[in-house]
Design a protein that fits this description.
Elements: H1 9-36, E1 52-56, H2 60-72, E2 77-81, E3 86-88, H3 92-96, E4 107-109, E5 118-121, E6 125-129, E7 134-137, E8 141-144, E9 147-150, E10 155-156, E11 174-175, H4 188-206, E12 211-216, H5 227-243, E13 248-253, H6 263-274, E14 279-282, E15 286-291, E16 296-301, E17 304-309, E18 312-315, E19 319-320, H7 323-326, E20 356-358, H8 371-389, E21 402-409, E22 412-418, H9 436-452
Parallel strand pairs: 1-2, 1-9, 2-5, 9-20, 11-18, 12-13, 12-18, 13-14
Antiparallel strand pairs: 3-4, 6-7, 7-8, 10-19, 15-16, 16-17, 21-22
The structure holds flavin-adenine dinucleotide.
């Protein structure tokens, strides 16, 4: 692991200012909404009504929902259903796969996050029965609720790529930092990719011809957008320091026409990526087949296919909602968002069932799947749950905030924060400039803030 923990006083002061800014901005985001909508209060007062509130899923969004619902409804009986004893800080996978973060920095006991008076059923949800206000569970049978909050995250679909399955990761040059198990709280993909990166570092020194390294993005919505690109630019920088830029050739394969789905950030990133002579971007292509034995990837664009030989390949898997959501009455029935949970993207309330809310990766938003999005959604949820229990109109609306921090080189991060329409920076600094400060924020401050503030509904 690199010893880069030293942080000078100037950086530390900046970071503290940044931290307070982050918390302040979240509150600001919520209060602004009420002002914009002409509301008289800064937030909806808590509802003191009794209600049975069930939360399905205990990852980032579920735990945030528990903390915020506890405040929104102090007299409610809140039950959270989730099997995982260990909670995994998923953004850590990027640093872990480059040997820059330890496993122990990425995990905490799930029990340590529970607010007072929230009952934890440590088991799986197996189905929904929204017509009868009941949720089905593995061990406790059917549980009734007055309000249901769904925060089940998303599932990977490595098998959608011909010749590929998750057991191949870590073998034959196949990397994927995404492979993890949020139920077990493990991050195998980061471990296995990190081990292959060690091999890559050795190969680059001895290689007689440039190593061909592919990074492939899927054509589905993804969580942690920008992670594949970040890993590529981080590896590139670290490998170049070992072997020089003539020894590696990276190809970034994306089905999109852009690197990031916000045009200003896309423009800024495009300019940075162009400066790396050893990087080629293949837009409008996606990985459709892997021949692991021959180390060949089939890339498809419309009805055209090309084959590309590789030494190493990183795969961001296609993603979808878990089957129990996809096959339920809660899912979008058709169109590009088919299978994801069908909520109003502003109020987070289900479009057909008024007493059901959703947040986090499970909901039907094509771009905003991040912990940062779940954080902003949690603020909206708190107010809307209180309003819903009182039978009031839901006044607080989610603006689509998301964050996609992109590592542009070792020690440099571009903090891309945006919403449906425009950039939405938290800090008063030019957001298009990659900064060492954001590297520190992502690598050191955020893991701490995530476990101590965000997961307690305090930012
Ligand atoms: C490699 C990577 C990098 C990332 N980088 C960033 C980043 O830099 N910034 C950022 O903001 N976000 C990042 N993210 C995304 C972020 O981690 C997720 O968006 C966030 O965790 C979503 O929270 P969630 O609660 O919706 O899903 P999860 O946190 O995945 O939680 C889902 C929960 O549902 C539970 N569950 C599953 N099935 C069942 C069931 N049947 N019954 C009950 N419970 C069940 C699981 O145990 C888990 O607790 C990254 C993600 C990855 C993988």
């Amino acid at each position: 692991m690199r010893k880069d923990r030293k942080i000078d006083r100037r950086e530390a002061l900046k970071l503290m200012a940044a931290g307070s800014g982050l918390a302040a901005s979240s509150l600001h985001a919520a209060t602004n909404k009420s002002e914009l909508k002409g509301g008289a209060h800064l937030s909806h007062p808590a509802s003191h009504k009794y209600a049975r509130i069930v939360i399905a899923g205990g990852g980032t969004a579920g735990i945030i929902a528990a903390a915020r619902t506890r405040r929104a409804a102090p007299n409610a009986e809140i039950t959270l259903i989730s099997p995982n004893t260990t909670h995994l800080y998923q953004p850590g996978a990027l640093f872990r796969a480059a040997g820059l973060m330890s496993q122990s920095e990425m995990v905490r006991e799930t029990a340590s996050f529970f607010p007072d008076n929230v009952t934890w059923l440590q088991e799986k949800v197996t189905g929904f029965d929204p017509e009868h206000n009941r949720i089905e569970t593995e061990k406790s049978g059917k549980l009734p609720y007055d309000v249901l909050i769904v925060a089940l995250g998303c599932a990977y679909d490595y098998g959608a790529i011909e010749g590929m399955d998750s057991s191949m990761i870590g073998k034959e040059g196949i990397l994927s930092i995404y492979l993890n198990d949020t139920v077990k709280g493990t991050a195998e993909g980061a471990e296995l990719s990190g081990a292959l990166f060690e091999k890559m570092k050795a190969d680059v020194v001895t290689a007689s011809k440039p190593l061909e390294i592919l990074f492939c993005e899927p054509d589905t919505p993804v969580k942690g957008k920008g992670s594949g690109l970040s890993l590529m630019l981080l590896y590139l920088d670290m490998l170049q320091k070992k072997g020089g830029d003539k020894k590696v050739r990276f190809t970034y394969v994306t089905p999109d026409e852009v690197l990031l789905d916000e045009k200003m950030f896309n423009h800024a990133l495009g300019k940075i990526v162009k400066k790396y002579p050893s990087v080629e971007v293949l837009y409008r292509h996606r990985l459709t087949k892997v021949d692991a034995a021959a180390k060949k990837a089939t890339l498809t664009s419309g009805d055209q296919t090309i084959e590309k030989a590789y030494d190493y390949i990183h795969i961001t898997p296609p993603m979808q909602a878990h089957r129990l959501v996809r096959e339920s009455a809660l899912a979008v029935g058709d169109g590009p968002q088919k299978g994801w949970m069908d909520v109003d993207p502003k109020t987070l309330r289900h479009r057909s069932y008024e007493n059901i809310f959703g947040l986090g990766d499970v909901i039907a938003l094509d771009y905003a799947k991040s912990g940062g999005a779940a954080q902003h959604q949690g603020i909206i949820l708190q107010d809307n749950i209180a309003a819903a229990l009182e039978g009031d109109r839901l006044r607080y609306t989610y603006d689509g905030y998301t964050v996609a921090p992109v590592v542009t080189a070792y020690g440099k991060v571009m903090l891309a924060e945006y919403n449906r329409e425009k950039v939405q920076p938290t800090f008063f600094l030019d957001p298009y400039t990659p900064r060492k400060l954001w590297w520190w924020l992502q690598r050191y401050f955020m893991p701490w803030a995530y476990f101590n503030l965000l997961m307690r509904g305090m930012m």
